[in-house]
Write a structure and sequence with these properties.
- With 508 residues, the protein is α+β, with helices and mostly antiparallel strands.
- It folds into 3 domains: 55-201, Beta-Lactamase (2-Layer Sandwich); 245-344, Signal transduction histidine kinase, dimerisation/phosphotransfer (DHp) domain (Helix Hairpins, Orthogonal Bundle); 346-508, Histidine kinase-like ATPase, C-terminal domain (Heat Shock Protein 90).
- It has 10 helices and 15 strands.
- Strands 1-13-14-12-11-8 form a 6-stranded mixed sheet.
- Helix 7 runs parallel beside helix 8 (388-404) and helix 8 runs antiparallel to helix 10.
- The longest helix is centred in the N-terminal third of the chain and has 56 residues, at 38-93.
């Protein structure tokens, strides 16, 4: 072999866009028609929930405060009653025996709280009054006491010693009665607590709170409107991109900012567009390639059929030519379909496969491709995760190319071996011919679609065979390569990742 520079060109697998296998039989959800924009719905729901919450809090708070008013009134009555009991005990020991003396001295010492009226009764007659109502005066008359004598009479006739009564304008009152006997006469002290004013203060306070809450709801509504707009901004971008995207232009993407749920939606939408763009590009490339490659044989077939003569020999020649062109068209379509299918996620179905058996099967099948001196040089022993049908297809395509550039009886070598260790281990399968070789300029692009060598190492065919080989290796995450010297043949091969694991490898 002459001294020449050997160049190895590896075609690495491009990064494929993420794919997600579509679930089969997934139920379709029926969406209800909505006419109100999402921003309005979010804002209105926030307003409604805020109003319900504030209303519930206001009603509960008002009930608690009104209960406090009643409790305070009861405590005032109990305090006043306890003071009268202590006074009555002290007055009895100090010599006060008549009702009038007892009541006069007690009322002289007391002062009514706000909203409180204390009435002294002797033998059913009112003798003393302490009036704590606004503008009230302490006098035996009932002119300044709401309800007047009717209220006092109802309290005296009641069998209970405490309770609640309604006075009309002054609202409900809490009352208590202390009955006593002095000097053979019956008397009573009536303690009345008017709660209307305290209730009015509670209502006024909660009225103010209600106005403040209303302003708060309005403020929160404005904030909700703004926040909803910011949250839905990426959704509007998704809508804008989906609206503006064209049938032939799928390059538009939604800007993604952040890592929240909305950003995840935008990211997922962009990934979907990536998949659609890949599928669209595959289909477009298939259509373009088919139109480009099939145009010539169709033109040839049409031209010869239009000029078909009645001469039997010419007709037979024309039919042979047309049949050949139709066969070529069939091969082109088959190859294009393989390349189109290579973009699908199930193109490669990897399984643990014995490399030695695979190599022997490939060598046996390759011998049917042509009358050549087939030689099996190396056999890798061990197993590797791969698709045996696709690998066989790729290596036989390399063998078919070797047949095209050699003559009957020429030597073609086939081999396989493991290289590397551990996770870096790979299975290498190769085919070596004795043809004219591949020029460096051709080696750099020979694995592209419809690319044929035009130098000394020109290779005949449609230009799809090596593209199929590369597609198969890409599907396995491997690479296709060529090692050639002009005039001394070429070695084409593929490298497939084959992590060793527990397998042992050796070459024979």
């Amino acid at each position: 072999m002459t001294d020449a520079t050997t160049e190895v060109i590896e075609v690495a697998a491009p990064e494929a866009p993420p794919r997600r296998k579509q679930e089969q039989g997934a139920p379709l959800r029926t969406l209800r028609a909505r006419t109100l924009p999402a921003r309005w719905r979010i804002t209105l729901w926030i307003i409604l929930s805020s109003l319900i919450t504030l209303l519930a809090v206001g009603m509960i708070g008002r009930s608690i405060f009104l209960a406090g008013v009643e409790q305070n009134a009861n405590e005032q009555i109990e305090q006043e009653a306890a003071e009268f009991v202590r006074f009555a005990e002290d007055a009895t020991t100090s010599g006060h025996t008549t009702l009038e003396e007892l009541l006069d001295e007690y009322f002289a010492r007391q002062s009514a709280h706000a909203g409180e009226v204390v009435v002294g009764v002797a033998d059913g007659e009112v003798v003393s009054v302490l009036n704590g109502l606004p503008g009230g005066v302490a006098a035996p008359a009932f002119d300044g006491i709401p309800g007047g004598g009717v209220l006092i009479e109802r309290m005296l006739r009641s069998t209970a010693t405490a309770g609640e009564l309604t006075t009309g304008e002054q609202g409900p009152v809490r009352w208590g009665r202390m009955d006593f006997v002095a000097g053979g006469h019956e008397g009573a002290v009536l303690i009345v607590q008017y709660t209307q004013q305290a209730r009015a203060q509670v209502d006024a306070t909660f009225g103010t709170i209600a106005w403040v809450a209303l302003l708060g709801v309005l403020l929160s509504s404005g904030i909700a409107w703004l926040v909803a707009g910011q949250i839905l901004a990426p959704v509007r971008e998704v809508y804008r991109v989906a609206r503006d995207i064209g049938e032939r232009d799928l390059t538009a993407r939604v800007p993604v900012d952040g890592s929240d749920d909305i950003a995840a939606v935008a990211t997922t939408f962009n990934q979907m567009l990536d998949r659609l763009e890949t599928v669209h590009a595959t289909q477009q490339r298939f259509v373009d390639d088919a139109g480009h490659e099939l145009r010539t044989p169709i033109t040839i077939v049409r031209g010869h059929l239009e000029l078909l003569s009645d001469d039997p020999e010419e007709r037979a020649a024309t039919i042979r030519l047309v049949s050949g062109e139709l066969d070529r068209m069939s091969r082109i379509v088959t190859d294009l379909l393989v390349l189109a299918r290579a973009e699908q996620p199930d193109f490669v179905r990897a399984a643990r496969c014995d490399a030695a058996s695979l190599t022997l099967d490939i060598e046996a099948k390759a011998q049917a491709l042509g009358d050549r001196n087939w030689q099996l040089m190396e056999v890798a022993e061990g197993s590797a995760p791969l698709d045996p049908q696709r690998i066989t297809q790729a290596v036989l395509q390399l063998a078919a190319n070797a047949v095209q550039v050699t003559e009957d009886g020429d030597r073609i070598r086939i081999g396989s071996r493991f290289e590397g260790e551990g996770d870096e281990r790979r299975l290498r399968l190769w085919v070596q011919d004795t043809g004219p070789g591949v020029a460096a300029a051709d080696a750099e692009r020979i694995f592209e679609r419809f690319t044929r060598g035009d130098s000394v190492g020109a290779r005949r065919g449609s230009g799809l065979g090596l593209a199929i080989v590369r597609a198969i290796t890409d599907g396995h995450g491997g690479s296709a390569w060529v090692d050639s010297v002009i005039g001394e043949g070429a070695t084409f091969g593929i490298d497939i990742p084959a992590p060793s694991g527990a397998d042992e490898e050796r070459s024979a």
